[in-house]
Amino acid sequence: MATDTHRAIEAVWRIEAPRLIAGLTRLVHDVGAAEELAQDALVAALEQWPADGVPGNPGAWLMTTARRRAIDRVRRNETLRRKVEQVGRDLDETTPDIAAQVAEDDGIGDDLLRLMFVACHPVLSTEARAALTLRLLGGLTTGEIARAFLTPEATVAQRIVRAKKTLTAARVPFEVPQGDERAARLASVLEVVYLIFNEGYSATAGDDWMRPALCAEALRLGRVLAGLAPSEPEVHGLVALMEIQASRAAARTARGGEPILLADQNRARWDQLLIRRGLAALDRAEVLVEGQPGPYVLQAAIAACHARARRFEDTDWPRIAQLYERLAASVASPVVELNRAVALSMAFGPETGLALLDQLTAVPALHNYHLLPSVRGDFLAKLGRPVEARAEFERAAALTRNERERTLLLNRAADCARLNAAGRAGPQRSPGRPERRRPA
Amino acid sequence: MRFMVITKATSVSEAGLPPEPEDFETMGAFIQELVDAGVLLAADGLHPSAQGARIYVDGGKKTVVDGPFTETKELIAGYFLVETKSLEECVEWFKRCPTMRVGEGEQTNLEIRRVALAEDFGDQFGEEFTAELRETVEKREATVASRHPAE
Hints:
By secondary structure, chain A is mainly α. Among the domains of chain A are: 1-105; 330-421, Serine Threonine Protein Phosphatase 5, Tetratricopeptide repeat (Alpha Horseshoe), CATH 1.25.40. Helix content of chain A is 71%, strand content 0%. The radius of gyration of chain A is 26 Å and the shape is elongated. The relative contact order of chain A is 0.06. Mean pLDDT of chain A is 86; it is low at 91-106 and 428-440.
């Protein structure tokens, strides 16, 4: 019976924690103090609810309790008093007003958005931002975050404590940034959400279930953000990208955990509901775009090309190549160029892709990047140049750190050698499954 | 975890009368809350069963019967699709769902069911899927190869 109540409290906490912490931060102007107060209220709930039952409006109960404690602490605690000097004075004099201020529902959305901006403040490291976001806006426990990131719990706990101290020391204001600052700060929030998503997406079979659960949490945060900042095309772009990528979750790994390339995925296992939601989010983003779309909108548009293709053969490669070109112009990444080469090859033949790759071989960042020779080898093999292809596959095999990939690459090199020995310069196809490189 | 929350038909929903404006409003507010929390994936309300039909299957024989259907309490009147961390979280959300208007002395309930997703079958039916997958891939490769001779 008590366990049932505990599970209910956990569920209430998950639902209420972000709003509770956001509302309390507005009151005490300090994320760390607000979270402690919210935790105190949770402890009170754990003491009282098993005996008295879960109240009818558990959110309001938690807020009232936390608020009462905030007032007690402001009165008692000098440190906190200093932190909240002005508010503290107001509290002593006009407690009912403050109560009304906290109780009012208006602006709770703004508070959540402010909290997101604070938790993802660039003054914090990326790991700290991710941990703090999950803690404050996801209602996840430190233990859950630690399991999700394969990090010791003590490390995560310390990271969160330090992050909260950093925010206090930096006097990060509890506000939604405006003007020039807004774009950069929003980019920081989106980066954190996408990082959480990718951490979950890279989970492998046998991992703790908290890892793939990060995908769901990032998606939820993205959807919340889309509601809070509905006029930002990049927010909808990120949501679209995550919805579409998540739609392939069940199709992207084989039973033994081996990744299945996009070309070979069983598209019947793609989640059509998430695809629909992703395409709708992309539509919203594209309506809002003024001038050049940002990187998330472009990546979502590429993902949408794959999502729309019922079969791999139906993929609109010319459009994907065009989107990669625009993405390359916006983010200037050699990896994006590599993906563009693959798209060009799929759209217009391997020689077109090869022409772009030849420009990339001079890029220092790609010198030790195994996918460059791997893709180059693939193009050369398709062009009936097995000697050069073999050399590329061998180079790629030497560069990759992934055992499974190395075997695959060496097999392809061996196939090229065999073909060359047989004196056949004709169509090149490896006897087994040909390795195909797809844009991520 | 994905859940479908099913609302049941009542004499009111089966009568096909438009909802009272205040019901519309409270339900709208609840749905907005689910959207704001990033929890809601989809939701729909259904017209009365009078506008539907059933296909009865008896062995190989199929018989189509038009609505309405009489066992009101067993009928579905609408659904929500939500993504939550646990069943408990879903329950906690829907304890907050506004009460459906019912006829006098009538009772109703919300039924929460976990949605089976493709990955849920991963282990159980992995072998079949893989075999089927392999076949699809091979067929596809044959098609691709014939369409794109490598020269």
